[in-house]
Amino acid sequence: MLLCEAGYEDAKHNLHIESIRKQKLPINKVIPAVVNLYIDLYEQDAIEINNGMCEDFAADVCSLVSNAKAFWLDEINPIIKDEFGEKIRNITAHKVIKYRGRYYDSQCPEGTTNWKELIR
Question: Please, what is the Cα angle at 43 between 119 and 111, to 5 degrees?
Answer without folding.
Answer: 30
